[in-house]
Amino acid sequence: MFFGHLGDRLGRKTTLVASLLTMGIATFLIGVLPTHAMVGAWAAALLLLMRLTQGFAIGGEWSGAALVATENAPEGKRAWYGTFPQLGAPLGFIIANMLFFVINHLLADPAAPGQPSATFLEWGWRIPFLFSAVMVIVGLWVRLKLVESKAFEQTKERGTVKRVPIAEAFKNHWRALILGTLAMLATYVLFYLMTSFTLTYGTRPVMPLFPAQATPTTTSF
């Protein structure tokens, strides 16, 4: 709602740069957060704040990128072009998990193979978050080279940019907003249920599928 409003007022390019910087700064700051031993419960509160900021930014990142892709797509290929921004999340999951796997392997404890070492838990986990600064710089360079969408440029030329776009959206397109919200609600409920389940399942000790059964005994009548 926030970044969509800005995108319709100021343009897609400006909004994507703002959401990227919001996401990048929050991600980098996670890598320099103090520990519980340093500041107590404030450590958890600060981490929660950074995670909420990331979630706030992704609303502008994801929807904004999909909007730019579809608005700049050739005639008849909006759906095809709109699929590419959706690849960002799964590719990000794969790369992030591979990076954590490599760091955990390089900082492994020989006495406990496969388990996070004291070094990893102390400071190794911060490396990917600090490395995100490089990705932000690359992303910022790409965004600044981005061409504004033709749809928004034509709207500016006609002088039909709305003062309060979000109010216009709720007033004239409330049915589409409700349907879109319900569709995404169903999608993300399934997504987070599955990712939370697999994470919990994957980090628990392996249990036998069929527990050992007692040797059957015979009874004489």
Task: Reconstruct the topology from this structure.
Layout: H1 2-10, H2 12-30, H3 36-39, H4 42-71, H5 78-82, H6 88-106, H7 118-124, H8 126-145, H9 150-158, H10 165-172, H11 174-202
Helix pairs in contact: 1-2, 1-4, 2-4, 2-8
Please give a structural write-up.
This protein is an all-alpha fold and 221 residues long. It has a single domain, classed as Up-down Bundle (Growth Hormone, Chain: A). It is built from eleven helices and no strands. The protein has helices spanning 2-10, 12-30, 36-39, 42-71, 78-82, 88-106, 118-124, 126-145, 150-158, 165-172, 174-202. Helix 1 (2-10) packs across helix 2. The mean pLDDT is 83.
Helix percent band: over 70%
Shape: elongated
Order of helices and strands: HHHHHHHHHHH
Radius of gyration using CA atoms only:
24 Å
List the total number of helices: 11
Mean pLDDT: 83
- Predict the CATH topology: Growth Hormone, Chain: A
pLDDT < 50 stretches: none
CATH class annotation: Mainly Alpha
Q: What's the number of extended β-strand segments? A: 0
Taking the sheet with the most strands, its summary is: none
Helix/strand/pairing category: mainly alpha
CATH homologous superfamily identity: MFS general substrate transporter like domains
The structural domain count equals: 1
Quaternary state of this entry equals single chain
Give the terminus-to-terminus CA distance. Answer: 77 Å
Q: Assess the beta-strand content as a share of residues.
A: under 5%
CATH architecture: Up-down Bundle
